[in-house]
Design a protein that fits this description.
This protein is an alpha/beta fold. It has helices at residues 18-34, 59-78, 137-140, 163-166, 170-177, 195-210, 305-323, 337-350, 367-380, 390-400, 404-426, 436-441, 462-478, 487-491, 511-523, 528-533, 538-550, 552-556; strands at 3-10, 39-41, 86-93, 108-116, 119-125, 146-152, 155-161, 182-187, 213-218, 220-223, 226-229, 233-235, 241-244, 251-258, 277-284, 329-332, 355-359, 383-386, 429-430. A seven-stranded mixed sheet has the order 13-12-9-8-7-6-15.
Length: 584
Amino acid sequence: MPNLRLALCQTDPWVGDIARNGDEVVHWTRQAVEAGAQLVAFPEMALTGYPVEDLALRRSFVEASRSGLTELAGRLAAEGLGEVPVVVGYLGRSEQASPRFGRPAGSPQNCAAVLFRGEVATRFAKHHLPNYGVFDEYRWFVPGDQLPVVRVHGVDVALAICEDIWQDGGRVTAAREAEAGLLLVINGSPYERNKDDARLELVRRRAAEAGCALAYVNMVGGQDELVFDGDSIVVAPDGEVLARSPQFEEHLLVLDLDLPAASSDHTDGLLLADGLHLVRAELGGEPADAPAEPVRAEVAPRITDEAEIWSALVSGTRAYVHKNGFRSVLIGLSGGIDSAVVAALAVDAIGAGNVHCVSMPSRYSSQHSRDDAAELARRTGLNFRTVSIAPMFDAYVAATELTGLAEENLQSRLRGTLLMAISNQEGHIVLAPGNKSELAVGYSTLYGDSVGAYGPIKDVYKSLVFRLARWRNEEAERLGEVPPIPENTIVKPPSAELRPDQKDTDSLPDYDLLDTVLDLYVEGDQGRDAIVAAGFDPAVVDRVVRLVDTAEYKRRQYPPGPKISVKGFGRDRRLPITNRWRRG
């Protein structure tokens, strides 16, 4: 059997920065070629970043992507890298009209190309377009109708893009019909909890259906609310894992594959599964035997659930700060669990020297919370100061005679105003500390604790916030470091401290119960009756459902944050603000 040395480049493209992304393709290709690679692959839309959303509708951006692709092909050749085929995703356009979708010729497409010897050897568009959850690809793209197969070093390699293997049939079935020896899939697959396990099972199943080895390369990094975890995989037709990249880091995965010799004499235009037309490209190269010293396949160890989630939150926060041109962040550090976890995440993401925290006590702030905030700052080394809001609060109350909830919310809004003033003065971006439980039921103050450019734990239920805090401290101990979060912050009852002796349980069910009901209602889309039938107190369910439904207007005004769940607030869950349906 011929041997093919494959390189999967697990990279972090930046949306809209075609020049930078092109530089990265050259950089990683050079490393792959130096490692002896005979075929190199990059993630979905690696040239433009992903997802580009409505940038796809700007003709200037489409043309910049297309011209950037041809320039990249020439540059690879000019730098001595042109003899190795490189598969790279980009934003392209259709050559023909698509009457079925009501789209004219020239409509945007999610494309990939094979660059070889200074030319674009072949190009194709994604066949299956996802249109669920965070994906709106039918809004932007028209699907492709080809199965590209490139023959390189005596092996037929079929090519596909991400969703092409998440749907049945299509290019997977067509790859079997074309008698491909390898199915190479480039991806921009966002992170969700436990998705690495689902992804592995999917890849194994599709390899069996295609009847050949399957190589899956995914991107890393963050883009607004999405986080990409890499987890690139190569499996044999029988499902054996041949290689696997680590999650949440850029990585070059190189391995030698013994693959079936190309034997098919199918010609261009042959009609395959789902109406796909076979398109072949002969790239040459003599079939090679296995090298005397084959590259040892790497299978990265799996990480724990908490480590995976923490890494996703850190990656999303780091990407949002750096890709938007900032270097530092500002956090209101109350001594409570949420702001403590956000501060620890920020320190891991961008370094303690770039994290600035402010304690903003009022007359209701407990001494232990003030001490806990200061202790976290001492443990982590972040920048810390105290600015009391008491004088401002007293002035407002004297002028307006506020009481009750208005008085409580005023404290939060004064803190938000102070944070934004410091942000404007010093150039930090503010991180909002709200968690998913609070956002779900509206237990937050608009223009107060919702102030910020990014919400690192926006998609993290409160019970999970506590788990992550304990895990982060345990991880620090394992590494011989100082645990960042004071134990008292973790064990004390949660409180907003906006009135005397206040506790969250005064207003909400216990968080373990609340989060279980929320998971059924938000992630599971189960209605009130179904949740009650599962054994939950009808009064509790009615209360939670009412709180969730009436807080939609608040969630719409909350900043973005990294998505880690199946259904995060934002792109995933789109309900009307004005809504009289109350039966769940």
